[in-house]
Design brief:
With 539 residues, this protein is of the alpha/beta class. It contains 19 helices and 16 strands. The protein has three domains: 4-188, 2-Layer Sandwich (Beta-Lactamase), CATH 3.30.450; 228-392, P-loop containing nucleotide triphosphate hydrolases (Rossmann fold); 395-533, Helicase, Ruva Protein, domain 3, CATH 1.10.8. The protein has helices at 4-20, 24-39, 90-97, 115-124, 168-216, 228-241, 257-267, 285-293, 310-313, 329-341, 367-373, 378-384, 401-416, 425-433, 439-453, 467-471, 489-507, 512-519, 523-533, and strands at 41-49, 55-63, 76-77, 79-81, 84-85, 101-103, 131-137, 143-153, 160-161, 247-250, 275-279, 318-322, 343-344, 353-354, 358-363, 387-390. Strands 1, 2, 3, 6, 7, 8 and 9 form a seven-stranded antiparallel β-sheet that branches. Strand 8 (143-153) and strand 9 (160-161) form a beta hairpin. The protein starts with a helix and ends in a 6-residue tail after the last helix.
Length: 539
């Protein structure tokens, strides 16, 4: 037998394993190994009582000298018939009564039925002599199974006998550790299943809400975002809608400038009138002039009839001029005249016509730089920028990414007449980390691509996303849930808390005071969390 110091070391090591290991079989294997080392036992098993309480099943088996002898027994019936317990089986007796069975030789003892053990010895060419069965009782006094040890070596030369009485309580302690591990593992599995079910139900509710919102909203109602930066831009758009002044939308390619222009049109008094859009960089100068202002018959080769321009089509409503920074200088003068006098002249005509048009322009260009280069009229710039609205890029509002993904996927599913799409946590994590140089348009294209690649009801995963998203280096230190060494609920909460905190910091330009206000926590609490989760601003 081991000395007291060795017993303490085994218990410390086992306690450390219980605190760090989450896999049940690995935990119970560590319990059996520690108990075997302590008792100098050749073999050991753990038998677990099923949830019905009617059978014992082998879960872990070890034998130092004969692997065949470590084979787990077939299920052992707890009841002999009716409600009577099968107390002839030593394992059942220990589990039911809570007593330790401690025998010197199973072949000499006739109080229990060891026929199954004898048959296994015969098949394995092994002889089981001493036998110990300790009950696994949890803190609530509920039986969970038994810890079994065989062939206890009493002396270094290999003498085998019953476990000394002084060590029965120590073995019982190891059995209690095994019971705690099993109870915690079962609770963990139950909690994880409940969390999974809750997640699925919440996802289903969110998708149904999005689907109903899409079905009941206007076809062009695509203004999606709750981040402070986005809401600030949207508030400016709403304020601009109530005024007849020109609006200049500024932002990178793909940020949704036309969506904002449509929103300004819908929010204003002209919502019932036409909304007409034209990309100023899409046509050469002559064709663009004809498209915008119309022409008279014979104005140029091929002009076989009078034609109204988009300005006339938008009369009473809104004309959206996208990429106005690329409009030729000659046409810029006509747009300025339209803004100042409300009149236009068709190509090939000598008369001006009055029109009532609200101008909303957009550009991703640096207009002051173009003015300095002589490529854009300064007077037109000041006339357009009476009410500028800067639309933030998607990388500055990462908290809007999940809502946008859901919006696009719901639209696609509705258009295809199929059930809503679902994302794996890994796919959502990758989408939230990407920087989106193409902004919202890029995210929409990714969603459309993924929708084409998924089959049936499978969830959108990393393999359905562009390769560069799966290869990106994580910017948040917390690992994805599925790959975390700690799959507990607390670890999941830390993971998503890290994501939310970093998203708010990005939105506020890493201003800790402003981020703390958005998170509704104190700045001291935020600083503590930054240190705890190792969150740092990008270099």
């Amino acid at each position: 037998m081991q000395d007291p110091l060795s017993v303490a070391e085994e218990l410390i090591e086992l306690t450390t394993t219980l605190a760090t290991e989450r896999r049940l079989e690995a935990l119970l294997g560590a319990v059996v190994s520690a108990a075997r080392r302590l008792a100098l036992a050749e073999g050991g098993r753990i038998l677990v009582l099923d949830r019905t309480g009617r059978h014992l099943h082998g879960l872990v088996g070890q034998n130092e000298f004969a692997p065949e002898a470590a084979a787990l027994p077939e299920e052992i019936a707890v009841h002999a018939g009716g409600n009577a317990y099968n107390l002839r089986d030593a394992n059942v007796f220990s589990a039911v009564t809570g007593k330790i069975v401690n025998l010197a030789d199973v072949y000499d003892y006739t109080g229990f039925d060891f026929a199954a053990l004898h048959a296994q010895d015969l098949r394995a060419g092994y002889r089981t002599r001493s036998f110990v069965a300790a009950p696994l009782w949890n803190v609530e006094g509920v039986t969970m199974g038994v810890l079994q040890l065989t062939n206890i070596r009493l002396t270094p030369d290999g003498e085998i006998g019953a476990l000394p009485k002084a060590f029965e309580r120590v073995v019982a302690s190891f059995a209690a550790h095994a019971a705690v591990a099993m109870a915690n593992a079962r609770l963990f599995e139950e909690n994880r299943e409940l969390i999974r079910q809750l997640g699925h139900r919440n996802a289903d509710l969110a998708k149904e809400n999005s689907r109903l919102k899409v079905m009941t909203s206007a076809p062009d109602d695509q203004v999606v975002g709750e981040s402070p930066a986005f809401q600030a831009a949207l508030d400016l758009a709403r304020r601009a809608a109530s005024s007849p002044v020109a609006v200049l939308l500024l932002g990178e390619t793909g940020t949704g400038k036309e969506v904002f222009a449509q929103a300004i049109h819908r929010f204003g008094k002209r919502a019932a009138k036409p909304f007409v859009a034209q990309n100023c960089a899409a046509l050469p100068e002559t064709l663009l002039e004809s498209e915008l202002f119309g022409h008279r018959k014979g104005a140029f080769s091929g002009a076989v009839a009078d034609k109204k321009g988009l300005v006339h089509e938008a009369n009473g409503g809104t004309l959206f001029l996208d990429e106005i920074g690329d409009m030729p200088l000659a046409l810029q003068a006509k747009i300025l005249r339209l803004l100042e006098e409300g009149s236009v002249r068709r190509l090939g005509d000598t008369r001006s016509e009055k029109v009532d048009v609200r101008i909303v322009a957009a550009t991703n260009a640096d207009l002051p730089a173009k003015i300095a280069q002589g490529a854009f009229r300064e007077d037109l710039y000041y006339r357009l920028s009476v009410f500028p609205v800067l639309i933030p890029p998607l990388r500055e509002r990462p908290s809007d990414i999940p809502a946008l993904i859901d919006f696009f996927l719901t639209r696609i599913a509705h258009a295809q007449g199929r059930p809503p799409f679902a994302l794996t946590p890994q796919a959502l994590d990758a989408l939230c980390r990407w920087r989106y140089p193409g902004n919202v348009r890029e995210l929409k294209n990714i969603a459309e691509r993924a929708a084409l690649l998924v089959d049936g009801e499978e969830r959108i995963d990393l393999r359905h996303l562009p390769a560069q998203l799966a290869r990106q280096s994580p910017e948040i230190m917390a690992p994805p849930i599925a790959e975390s060494a700690d799959p507990s609920l607390r670890a999941a909460m830390r993971h998503y808390e890290t994501i939310v905190i970093e998203s708010r910091l990005r939105e506020t330009g890493w201003n800790q005071s402003r981020a703390a206000r958005l998170l509704q926590i104190s700045r001291r609490s935020l600083v503590d969390k930054l240190q705890r989760y190792a969150i740092r601003p990008p270099c």
